Amino acid sequence: MKMVSYTSMPADSTWTVRSENTPTVFDWDYAAGRDDLLNLYQKGKDRQWDAARRIDWSREIDPDNPLGVQDQFIALYGSSIWEKLTSREKGMVRRHMAAWQFSQFLHGEQGALICASKIVQTVPDISAKFYAGTQVMDEARHVETYSRYLREKLDLGYPVNPHLAELLGQIIRDSRWDFTYLGMQILIEGLALGAFATIRDNCAEPTAREVNAYVMQDEARHVAFGRLALRAYYPQLSEAERREREEFTVDACYLMRDRFVGTEIWRTLDFDPDECIRYASESQGMRLFRAALFMRIVPTLKDIGLWGKKVQDAFVDMGVIQFASIDCGEAGLADEAEADRLEKELHARAKTPGD
Question: pLDDT tens-digit profile of 341-350?
């Protein structure tokens, strides 16, 4: 009988199982793998953490200011509506804003969980499947974490924002593996990094800071995963394929920018939604916040080569083109380091008598 050695296994063989919507791709070349993705896979294994143990869930929070933010960060601050509110009503606005924002984080993380599992199914590279497997666990942990925070700390939640739901639906319905990377790893995860950072860096309440800093530590790897995969793949695209992806990117960026006006909050609180949206959209604080959301998306798109005139013109229009000079890799390392620094700081504070 002829013996078959491991090295004689087919080195370039894949098998695609067709289904009605999404193909499943097997990669039989188990010995192959890109070093950059395998290194990221190792980091993904090394940096797993348990939300039940790493985060101190025993802290009490102020229900009237659960994030511990200054009023300048409230979308209605300075408006005639805000000035007429009592202290109790202002506390209700702060709580509802926090619940709405963390609810969208929660729903986005479930979308990321589904998309990561889809990447395992559809991506043709075995090393990418390895890393995506670690991301599935990361995203399950993020869903657990935000769900627990909303239930135990805020006791309040909001349904998925229609703009976010629309974008998630577009990404999940598309059968092409690179669209899943582009829509989730680059755009939604990149946007999330900007939103998480504003809470991590501007909130005084330690539990909210912990939750977002530790999730950011994972998300920095996820964006790097998408960046590495697409930077290698996108030079192979035709001009028509590149144009299609750039059009999707521009539409998605405008969609995401316009989702952060909190329409659901003002309707729930029985405020005039049109007046609230108008003020929130034009306020200096909201403009700065919405710009910060694109700090990671802009340089990443430039890095992977989706940087045609339409994309650049859109970012000029949004006032975020200046972020193109940011070093993506350095920003990700800084997010990982900040999570470790915050963890040490909070642990040291917890051990200080009388603190």
Answer: 999 999 888 7
Does residue 9 carry a pLDDT above 70? Answer: no
Output the CA torsion sign for 87, 91, 94, 97.
Answer: negative
Pair 37, 65: CB distance under 8 Å: no
- DSSP characters over 52-88: HHHS-TT----TTSTT---GGGSTTTTSHHHHHS-HH
Q: How far is CA 59 from CA 93, 152, 350, in A?
A: 22, 11, 11
Q: Which two tokens stand for residue 39?
A: 């290194």
3-state secondary structure of 259: coil
Question: How far apart (Å, rounded) are the C-alpha atoms in residues 112 and 184?
Answer: 6
**Domain 34-350, CATH number (from 3.20.20.70, 3.65.10.10, 1.10.620.20, 3.40.140.10):** 1.10.620.20
pTM to 2 decimal places: 0.91
Give every CB contact of residue 42 below 8 A, 6+ residues apart in sequence. none
Give the residue extent of every domain in the chain.
Answer: 34-350
pLDDT per residue over 241-285, tens digit each? Answer: 999 999 999 999 998 887 667 889 999 999 998 999 889 888 777
Nearest to 256 by CA among 248, 266, 245: 248
